[in-house]
Design a protein that fits this description.
alpha/beta; four-stranded mixed β-sheet; 11 helices; globular
């Protein structure tokens, strides 16, 4: 097994195409295919499914690619430290469900540490990808929620993936909407009142299970439901269609403006927002500071 083979495997996983990976790596496709075949024989694992529609990473391949990335990144750090004139930049990445307070905490972190010595990455993405990003070392921290409905299923996935969930705060459920919404001035709303308006939900792709839904109460039979994958699109739908989404109630006017608000849902449902880490892995200095920034929002929960 060589470093070159690891880089080849990572490129194929990212491009999902042997042709595209070969072009990116400046090698011929036959050479790339032969190298990956040799690698699979060496490790005794099939890394990729090959079909007319392209390349898919196998479950065993996903785990292998995660470790391969770690090896390649460590090697790059060595190269930067001992072969370049300047010191290598330290890296910090976080993956999360669509939480504006998570973005706000990230902004504060970047302001505190600056970008001269650090390289930052943030991903707002699907629930399963948040889990996978931490599992395969793409992100140090994953921000998501658990509740009575999904806790048993997600806890098993966390355990099987060598992950640990750290609770941060318990939150009541709110309907997030534009200030022009007919229900915006109410102190509380119930599900029956909301049924006349489109419920907006972040789609979960191939892992489209109720247990991975980013919004609580996902099993209710909504009369109107729109799936989306972009925060800006969701905000536009709140204006154009009087849509709403269910959230923690922790909103950030400095990021999304004052045209949106959260109305308390008349429900006893509670969601626990927390963060994922690799089990037994100590947080970096930036990781600790990011958690500290997240913890500042505790006073806004359960109100």
């Amino acid at each position: 097994m060589t470093l070159t083979q690891l880089r080849y495997a990572i490129a194929i996983a990212e491009e999902k195409s042997m042709n595209k990976a070969a072009k990116r790596l400046f090698v011929s496709q036959p050479s790339l295919s032969a190298s990956i075949k040799d690698l699979e024989e060496q490790v005794g694992v099939v890394l990729f499914y090959r079909s007319n529609r392209g390349i898919m990473v196998t479950p065993q391949g996903e785990e292998f690619i995660g470790y391969a990335r770690q090896v390649v990144e460590q090697y790059q750090l060595l190269e930067e430290k001992y072969q370049l004139s300047g010191p290598a930049k330290k890296k910090f990445a976080v993956s999360m469900q669509h939480y504006s307070f998570g973005v706000s905490a990230f902004v504060e972190l970047v302001k505190q540490f600056g970008m001269d010595e650090y390289e930052f990455a943030i991903r707002e993405t699907k629930t399963y990808e948040v889990i996978d990003d931490v599992r395969y070392f793409k992100s140090e921290i994953g921000l998501l929620y658990v509740n009575d409905f999904n806790r048993k299923v997600l806890s098993k996935i966390f355990h099987d993936g060598g992950l640990e969930f750290h609770p941060l705060m318990d939150c009541r459920i709110y309907a997030y909407m534009h200030k022009s919404h007919p229900l915006a001035k109410k102190e509380k709303v119930n599900i029956e009142e909301l049924q006349d308006f489109p419920c907006l939900s972040f789609e979960q792709g191939e892992n489209n299970s109720f247990y991975f839904a980013e919004e609580v109460l996902s099993t209710l039979p909504y009369k109107q439901l729109i799936k989306g994958n972009d925060r800006a699109t969701m905000l536009n739908l709140m204006v154009g269609l009087m849509g709403y989404t269910l959230c923690s109630g922790i909103i950030m006017e400095e990021l999304n403006g004052s045209d949106y608000l959260a109305v308390r849902l008349d429900s006893d449902e509670i969601m626990t927002v927390g963060y994922l880490t690799r089990k037994g892995m100590l947080l970096s200095e930036l990781g600790h500071r990011y958690v500290e920034e997240l913890s500042k929002f505790k006073d806004k929960a359960l109100k």
